[in-house]
# Entry
Amino acid sequence: MASLNIASRTLARGVSRSCTRLNVARALSTSAQLNDAAASSGSYSSPFKGEPKSTKIPDFGHYLNKGSANTSLLFQYFMVGTMGAITAAGAKSTVQEFLKNMSASADVLAMAKVEVDLNAIPEGKNVIIKWRGKPVFIRHRTSEEIDEANKIDIASLRDPQADEDRVQKPEWLVMLGVCTHLGCVPIGEAGDYGGWFCPCHGSHYDISGRIRKGPAPLNLEVPTYEFPEEDKLVIG
Ligand code: FES
# Structure
């Protein structure tokens, strides 16, 4: 009897396992068939079908200008004008700063002036100094030379200029030592007029530095200078 019970239980377990395997195989087969059918038809069913759209455009009507079109234009013109003025002020400030940085500093400007002790130049003598890279002639003229410079008929000169218009003190003649023809440096106490002679092309200057003969078109240039003290000359 006992052996009959054990045999019936073993048989029941075997039948149960067979049924379970059969159900799993059927489920897999059904799922594969459904997928094949969807792929062959080319359609897809969204699981979110029927849901409301998530992209909503906000209403900006609250911010619209309620005034007339002219009011809006006036405001735009005002803004454009204001921005233009601010930009122009900024550009001006930038250019000013740039130019300030590029301009010569105070110490450089100070070096641009040359101070000369006039006691070191005897009467009737020339001195040549260098100022801003150019030679400057300083002549301590004698009274005879001053008379000679003044007795010339100005109308006969190529570059008419009175001697008194070329000097601050008659005894001190100060001028750039650069020939007005092509820029050579003339030689002092030379030439047909007792002044300066340019050997490059033969220009003759008189005792006032005025052109008298040769190709040079103008008198020797007189630089900016002053006498801060009786025996002191500052050029520049
Ligand atoms: S450069 Fe002096 S005469 Fe020509």
In short: The helical segments are 2-41, 69-102, 106-111, 143-150.
